[in-house]
Automatic annotation (TrEMBL), chain A:
<dbReference type="GO" id="GO:0004521">
    <property type="term" value="F:RNA endonuclease activity"/>
</dbReference>
<dbReference type="GO" id="GO:0005634">
    <property type="term" value="C:nucleus"/>
</dbReference>
<dbReference type="Pfam" id="PF10996">
    <property type="entry name" value="Beta-Casp"/>
</dbReference>
<dbReference type="GO" id="GO:0016180">
    <property type="term" value="P:snRNA processing"/>
</dbReference>
<protein>
    <recommendedName>
        <fullName>Metallo-beta-lactamase domain-containing protein</fullName>
    </recommendedName>
</protein>
<dbReference type="InterPro" id="IPR050698">
    <property type="entry name" value="MBL"/>
</dbReference>
<comment type="similarity">
    <text>Belongs to the metallo-beta-lactamase superfamily. RNA-metabolizing metallo-beta-lactamase-like family. INTS11 subfamily.</text>
</comment>
<dbReference type="Pfam" id="PF16661">
    <property type="entry name" value="Lactamase_B_6"/>
</dbReference>
<keyword id="KW-0378">Hydrolase</keyword>
Automatic annotation (TrEMBL), chain B:
<dbReference type="InterPro" id="IPR016024">
    <property type="entry name" value="ARM-type_fold"/>
</dbReference>
<dbReference type="Pfam" id="PF25458">
    <property type="entry name" value="INTS4_C"/>
</dbReference>
<dbReference type="InterPro" id="IPR011989">
    <property type="entry name" value="ARM-like"/>
</dbReference>
<dbReference type="GO" id="GO:0010496">
    <property type="term" value="P:intercellular transport"/>
</dbReference>
<keyword id="KW-0539">Nucleus</keyword>
<feature type="domain" description="Integrator complex subunit 4/Protein SIEL C-terminal Ig-like">
    <location>
        <begin position="786"/>
        <end position="910"/>
    </location>
</feature>
<dbReference type="InterPro" id="IPR057412">
    <property type="entry name" value="INTS4_C"/>
</dbReference>
<dbReference type="GO" id="GO:0005634">
    <property type="term" value="C:nucleus"/>
</dbReference>
<dbReference type="GO" id="GO:0005768">
    <property type="term" value="C:endosome"/>
</dbReference>
């Protein structure tokens, strides 16, 4: 069996995440995002690759959304309402709560502000959300008879999950976006050590290694503090969910500590609404917040107030969180237009800005004037600070997770091609795990684990129930092995189920006789004096008991002698096959034809030597 | 109990047996038959019943202690047959043997057999409780080592815990076993189960430690690096427990190469570490290089769980203890932890920083000052204390930061008045460490101080005392600063002496502080042109400080024993410590005296005398040394009494001059005594001689022309003698001596003595520099005992008036040096006295102690019915500088007395009686 991983989006790029994995015949779609940077048909993943006829219900077993960012959830209403997918959709509780907000906000910006063609309506969003089945952390869901899925905490944003999916014996993990270090309000990704055939990981920062987060936080705080201390206004354009809360917590704490009285404003209703969700979804936040929550909800910001448009020109310092991020449109851009010309003010840009936005222009150099979208120019004399926090893991985090999970294969998505390639090399060379970086539309096939069920015989089971240790002393160290399974033999007969039997049972099962290795030698014995055969045997027996130490019990019969498995009887044949290298010419010599089993190898030769001395 | 064995026992019967067992009145015969029945049931291995039987037996052993050995035996003998409930019977055995330590031990082989045959839950119980059975460590090791291969994770975990136990119990050091155990633990670091991994980490650390210890020195570093890196590989584990254990394990290993330590502080793989010498990991198959350690501590410090952060900070601390060089970035990382939300983490970080500060590596940058200021006003007392301790040691780079620091401390004083003593001492040290900036801050305080003192109603004593404390610390490290300190500050400080000395109790005692303040007051008033005495004080202060270098806060709990400073001799002996304290006190008293606080000085000196007298003779100080100390302190006390006479004008009333004369007389007598009565003086000689010189100077200064010549003569003789002594001992003459010599030469040429020079010289006298007093132990006190046997007021010696009378004396001499001249002084109350020379042959043996009888002849019998004579033994002071007396008979030199005067009673014998 094989696992096929078809990348519909976010292959060697960032945006419109969508991966379809076929495990033992089951197709699971992970994420259904849109590309923020594209306006054409490339905005959505190319679903037609999946099914030409558009019969997605029968092709896909389930769709799992990892978190509420547009590049992970953006195409969901389109896929369910426009393309007509009606199968189960899974997402975490917070994602289910926050996704409609994001989708609606986006739709409004695209349609109402930019006047673009409407790809989905509010009604679409609502009806698509009705199909969603919420997931909880570490809750195992049996999607159908064979398919199991389970969500693990991923950090990144509120409600972000990594998804474990298992069909039969084959298992994979799709990480979505994740963060390996904790931040103010979210914890670090947490997953069990699982036996995985495939790990599909994001790789946004495939080559970056970040230092400690504390200096970065401090830089940001100091930049803001310096600005407000100088009477300036600080503008922090950010999206309503995620970074806004993070930075706000940071500032709120700092304000308390330094006893600063400057107001912090939140611009839009969306952020206020989002804060409400954050306050409710405490169990999805970091340990720190959870523990503090007992006494005080950390999302009840003490110094934060609502912002009114009239306050833009109000005198005195302030800090303003304004949506949307990247200064791409809307209110944040409007405030920027007013505040940018003053050298006292500060614009702090958290996170990544897509090329083409004002945010990107500000970050890539020190422009003195910036063209806004509608052609107006703004003098930029304010200070620009780039906040260097990211909710994505860095390269070391990806390596650490990979090392921890040790999957059999890795597929990297959600990253830029050159850095993904170098990470791929690193994973292959350092960890020795095959790594793939498929482009959109490509499929990666890897072998999957299959287990064969076998019955075990009673004897084998009985022996296995108790440990059977063997200690071996190698040259430098003591080793221990448990031998109990080592005694088993797997027997696969035609048209029968495989069976494990104990090695002693093998011959019986196979209806074969046991073969025994034995040694034979026809030994010349000298007869002393006038003794008959019985006398000779007696003589020999005495001799043996004298010389051979381990010959305890010697049985004698008339012409036979037996010690353990060693048997000797007088050989009357003229030519014995076991008689070698000795001429039978001498009449004084009699022959004792001996045979003994391989277990008594030493004993046998000992007796032979003893008898030869008698010669 | 007539039950038949064949009858299957119902629970009901068992219940009635139980009631018999717990009833204390059941006759012994019944009990013994119950015992027989129950032990008879044991071999049947009838598991439903057996459980109850074992329970009953254990109850029985509880109620009848005398049967316990018998029960133990019977269970033990059936142990191997009891396959199904072996673990249960072992539990009974364990509890039995714990109560009766005499019971036979359980055979290790039997235990192992049962353990291997048992089901999972019993096996787990057995492995967990294996320590309770007195099994040989080899058996335990084999079992635990084997069961690390168990398919059940809970058993693997217990087995690993067991291995940790075996290792910690010690004594297991077969090289291969250690290696094997370590390797097995390393394998289990990759276990699927969280709990197994966390136990494996512990096992790796303890066995790794044993492994490291077993290596030769050359390989040790390599081996410890390998273990360290091995642990680094699990730092990014997803389980909190594992991460906590890993950081604790770093603390256990405690050391690693510098390149690795550097790498732990950076997430980027450092070139030097990555490409440099790769430590070969021979202990597992994969090759580990320093890259595995990348950013270990960064991850630890950023961890979501405070337990991990705490463990990380703590292990960071222990690593910093053991590595000599710890880079500055490390300190920055640690400082970030001061903003942690959790008190424990902040405290641990502060403790680590304190340690680094103690090593002298702490530079606090401006960025982190708010963190410290926060810590100083933290709600937790421990955090405040540790933060202040850091501030005591810290060196702040500029004025602004010092100001901030001082403000922070003042703020904390306002918020937490209970911390006042420690805050005062913090300010004192802060001021001392930043002497360059202090002057500026003093200016600031000065204004505040003056306004405050003007307005008595708003006198904020706490704040003012803090200001003062800061101010008065300044002259200690910066002599010039005294000019900028208003004398007012010192006078106020004197008023707060109690409070201050409470704060500075671990640095100096009240007397020293008083001396210092008094000194500063006078100097500051005299515009601070001369502040050399501060050095003296500083020396004394530093010396006393040295005793407190073993500050327990500075030493982390897990610091290796060898790195602790060797306990100095003084710490070991309280008596020696006391003596050295007394030396300091005497010194301080002298300083007080010079600052015209003679009454306080005398009081302090008397207290010293008293303290000395409390020292018993069996302490480690020799009697001689103790005696010397007493004498010396007494001398200084006399000087202190004399001193005010010289401070005042030269001419005083007759009454006072008589008093002075008497005091001087006593001083000279005592000086003589201290010179004569001690043998084995080494460096102390100069101490004494300087006092003699001082005595001469005082005499010269104060007294009339008549005795000047002899005084001068004596002075020059003493000076040259002391010079000779210094030459012989190769020691450096003190300033006082050289100055005196210089002025003597001037005097010699002119013949006239200027009083001012003399006064200057006198003031130069530097009392009791501790270098001169070593308490060498060679000091011996010369003494004598004199007894007239049988004599008393009712049993007088008979005499005939006018005729000499014999006094039979029993004399005991101690430590009398050879070639000394001893005299018996026989005196009468009317001051006539007679000396009798003691024949040296009587006492010039080699022994230190000598007893003999001597009959002294007293010539001067008066015409009286009864009279008494005082007899004492004196030693002639044979010093070159001591002038001769003009007696016709008796000693040519002054005599010092070695014992108290003994009264001898005489009564007149009538002639008739004599005849009779």
């Amino acid at each position: 069996m094989a696992i096929d991983c078809l990348v519909l989006g976010a292959g060697q790029e960032i945006g419109k995440s969508c991966v379809v994995v076929t495990i033992n015949g089951k197709k699971i779609m992970f994420d259904c995002g849109m590309h923020m940077g594209c306006d054409d048909h490339n905005r959505y993943p190319d679903f037609s690759i999946l099914s030409k006829s558009g019969d997605f219900d029968n092709t896909i077993s389930c769709l799992i959304i990892t978190h509420f960012h547009m590049d992970h959830v953006g195409a969901l209403p389109y896929f369910t309402e426009v393309c007509g997918y009606n199968g189960p959709v899974y997402m975490s509780y917070p994602t289910k709560a926050l996704s409609p907000l994001m989708l609606e906000d986006y739709r409004r910006i695209m349609v109402d502000r930019r006047g673009e063609e409407e790809l989905f309506t509010s009604a679409h969003i609502a009806s698509c959300m009705n199909k969603v089945i919420p997931l909880d952390l570490k809750q195992t869901i049996q999607v159908d008879e064979d398919l199991q899925i389970r969500a693990y905490y991923a950090g990144h944003v509120l409600g972000a999950v990594m998804v474990y999916a298992k069909v039969g014996d084959a298992a994979i993990v799709y990480t979505g976006d994740y963060n390996m270090t904790t931040d103010r309000h979210l914890g670090a990704a947490k997953i069990d050590r699982l036996q995985l055939d495939l790990l599909i990981s994001e790789s946004t920062y495939a080559t970056t290694t970040r230092g400690s987060k504390y200096p970065r936080e401090r830089e940001f705080l100091q930049a803001v503090h310096k600005c407000v201390a100088g009477g300036g206004k600080a503008l922090i354009p950010s999206f309503a969910l995620g970074r806004a809360q993070e930075l706000c917590m940071l500032l709120d704490d700092y304000w308390e500590r330094m006893n600063i009285k400057v107001p912090i404003y939140f611009s839009s209703g969306l952020t206020i609404q989002a804060n409400m969700y954050y306050k409710m979804l405490i169990s999805w936040t970091s340990q720190n917040v959870k523990e503090k929550h007992v006494t005080h909800n950390p999302f009840d910001f003490k110094n934060v107030k609502d912002f009114y448009r009239s306050l833009i020109h109000a005198p005195g310092p302030c800090v303003l969180f304004a949506t949307p991020g990247m200064l791409c449109a809307g209110f944040s851009l409007e405030v920027f237009k007013h505040w940018a010309p003053s050298p006292l003010n500060l614009v702090a840009l958290p996170g990544y800005s897509v090329a083409g936005t004002v945010g990107h222009k500000l970050m890539s150099g020190k422009p003195t004037t910036v063209d806004l979208y509608n052609g107006t120019k703004v003098d930029v004399r304010c200070k620009i600070h780039q906040v260097a926090f990211s909710p994505h893991t860095d390269a070391k985090g990806i390596m650490d997770l990979t090392k921890f999970l040790s999957p059999k294969n890795i597929v990297l998505v959600h990253g830029e091609k050159p850095s993904m390639m170098s990470l791929k090399d690193k994973i292959t060379s350092e960890l020795g795990i095959p790594c793939f970086v498929p482009a959109n539309g490509e499929t990666v096939s890897v072998a999957s684990t299959t287990f064969v069920k076998a019955n075990a015989s009673d004897m084998f089971l009985k022996i296995c129930s108790n440990p059977n240790f063997r200690f071996s002393n190698s040259s430098t160290q003591l080793r221990v092995t448990d031998q109990r399974t080592a005694d088993g033999v797997l027997v696969i007969e035609k048209s029968k189920k495989a069976k494990i039997v104990h090695q002693d049972e093998v011959s019986e099962v196979l209806h074969e006789k046991d073969h025994v290795v034995s040694l034979a030698y026809c030994c010349p014995v000298k007869v002393k004096g006038e003794s008959d055969d019985v006398g000779l045997i007696k003589q020999l027996s005495e001799k043996i008991s004298e010389t051979v130490s381990c010959a305890d019990e010697i049985h004698e019969s008339e012409t036979c002698l037996q010690v353990g498995s060693f048997k000797g009887s007088l050989c009357l044949k003229e030519e014995c096959v076991h008689r070698r290298g000795i001429s039978s010419s001498c009449s004084e010599v009699k022959f004792l034809c001996c045979n003994w089993s391989v277990a008594d190898l030493e004993l046998g030769w000992g007796i032979i030597n003893a008898m030869k001395q008698n010669l | 109990m007539e039950e038949d064995d064949s009858v299957s026992l119902t629970l009901h019967t068992l219940a009635s047996i139980r009631s018999l067992i717990i009833n204390a009145d059941t006759p012994f015969s019944v009990i013994s038959s119950v015992l027989d029945l129950l032990t008879g049931l044991l071999p049947r291995d009838d598991s439903p019943i057996l459980h109850h039987v074992l329970k009953l037996l254990s109850d029985l052993s509880l109620s009848r202690n005398d049967l316990a050995p018998q029960i133990f035996e019977s269970i033990l003998s059936n142990l191997l047959r009891l396959q199904t409930s072996a673990a249960e019977s072992l539990a009974v055995l364990a509890s039995l043997s714990e109560r009766n330590p005499t019971a036979a031990a359980i055979d290790g082989e039997a235990f192992a057999t049962i353990c291997i045959g048992a089901d999972v839950s019993s096996r787990m119980w057995m492995l967990r409780n294996a320590e309770r059975f007195d099994l040989p460590s080899s058996v335990l090791f084999t079992l635990f080592f084997g069961f690390t291969k168990d398919p059940y994770p809970c058993i693997r975990r217990v087995a690993l815990d067991g291995l940790v136990y075996v290792c910690e119990a010690g004594g297991f050091d077969h090289a291969r076993a250690v290696q094997g155990c370590y390797a097995r633990a390393v394998e289990l670091l990759d276990d699927d189960e969280d709990s197994v991994r966390s136990s494996a980490v512990r096992a790796v650390s303890v066995w790794g430690k044993v492994l490291i210890a077993s290596k030769e020195d050359a390989n040790r570093r390599e081996c410890s690096d390998a273990v360290f890196l091995q642990l680094c590989s699990v730092v990014r584990d997803m389980s909190v427990d594992v991460r906590v254990e890993v950081f604790k394990a770093f603390g256990v290993i405690g050391t690693a190469s510098e390149s690795i330590i550097l790498q732990t502080l950076s997430k980027k793989v450092l070139r030097a570490a990555g490409k440099g010498k790769k430590p070969q990991n021979r202990f597992s198959n994969e090759s580990a290089d320093a890259a595995a350690a990348a950013g270990v501590f960064i991850h630890g410090f950023e961890d979501e769980f405070y337990e991990v952060r705490e463990a990380a900070v703590e292990s960071f601390h222990s690593l910093s203890v053991n590595s000599i060089e710890f880079p500055d970035e490390a300190v920055c990382l640690l400082m970030d932890m001061l903003y942690d939300d959790y008190m424990v983490v902040r405290l641990k970080a502060l403790e680590a920083l304190h340690h680094i500060a103690h090593m002298g590596n702490l530079k606090i940058q401006e960025t982190y000052i708010p963190a410290f200021l926060d810590a100083i006003v933290d709600t937790s007392e421990n955090i405040r204390l540790t933060a202040r301790n850091i501030l005591k040691l810290a060196k702040l780079p500029d004025m602004k930061l010092v100001n901030k620091g001082v403000d922070g401390v003042l703020k904390s004083l306002e918020m937490y008045p209970q911390d006042e003593p420690d805050i005062l001492s913090t300010l004192f040290l802060l001021g001392q460490n930043h002497s360059n900036f202090v002057v500026n801050i003093i200016k600031r305080f000065r204004a505040k101080l003056e306004t405050d003192s003007g307005n008595k109603s708003e006198f904020n004593s706490r704040q003012v005392s803090a200001f003062l404390m800061f101010i008065i610390s300044a002259p200690l490290s910066n002599k010039q600063s005294i000019t900028s300190i208003p004398p007012l500050a010192f006078s106020y400080s004197l008023a707060m002496l109690g409070k201050f000395s409470c704060g500075l109790h671990d640095m100096m005692d009240q007397d020293t502080l008083l001396a210092y303040l008094a000194h500063c007051t006078t100097r500051s008033a005299s515009s601070g042109t001369e502040f050399n005495k501060a050095d003296t004080f500083l020396n004394a202060y530093r010396r006393s400080n040295a005793d407190h270098s073993g500050d327990p806060v500075l030493l982390p709990s897990n610091i290796p024993a060898e790195s602790k400073p060797m306990a100095s001799k003084e710490e070991l002996d309280p008596a020696l410590k006391l003596v050295s304290h007394i030396q300091l006190k005497v010194k301080a008293a002298w300083l007080l005296l010079q600052s015209a606080f003679s009454k306080e000085a005398i009081r302090a000196l008397r207290a010293c005398k008293q303290e000395l007298s409390t020292l018993t003779t069996n302490s480690s100080i020799s009697n001689g040394a103790l005696g010397f100390m007493c004498q010396y302190v007494h001398l200084i006390e006399l000087l202190a009494q004399v001193w005010p006479h010289f401070e005042n004008s030269r001419h005083t009333s007759t009454c006072r001059s008589v008093e002075l004369e008497l005091l001087m007389e006593e001083l000279e007598i005592k000086l003589m005594e201290i010179r004569c009565r001690f043998t084995g003086l080494s460096t102390e000689v100069s101490l004494v001689m300087e006092l003699v010189i001082l005595g001469c100077l005082l005499r010269l200064y104060k007294f009339e022309i008549c005795c000047r010549l002899s005084c001068k003569k004596r002075l020059s003789a003493t000076v040259s003698q002391l010079e000779l002594h210094h030459e012989q001992q190769c020691t450096k003459p003190s300033d006082f001596l050289t100055e005196t010599k210089k002025s003597l030469q001037e005097i010699g040429s002119s013949g006239d003595i200027s009083c001012l020079t003399l006064l200057d010289l006198i003031k130069k006298f530097n009392c009791f520099s501790p270098e001169q007093f070593t308490l060498s132990g060679n000091l011996q006190c010369v003494s004598a005992e004199l007894e007239v046997p049988g004599n008393g007021p009712y049993n007088p010696v008979s005499f005939v008036a006018g005729l000499p009378v014999a006094i039979p004396c029993e004399i005991k001499l101690l430590n009398v040096p050879r070639n000394s001249r001893l005299w018996l002084r026989i005196s009468r109350s009317d001051d006539t006295c007679q000396f009798v020379y003691l024949d040296p042959n009587l006492y010039n043996g080699g022994e230190t102690e000598k007893r003999f009888m001597f009959t002294a002849v007293a010539c001067m019998t008066p015409r009286a019915v009864v009279f008494t004579l005082q007899v004492s033994i004196g030693i002639e002071c044979l010093f070159e500088d001591v002038c001769c007396r003009k007696h016709r008979y008796g000693p040519k030199h002054p005599v010092t007395y070695l014992c108290k005067e003994r009264e001898v009673h005489f009564s007149h014998v009538s002639r008739t009686e004599a005849v009779l």
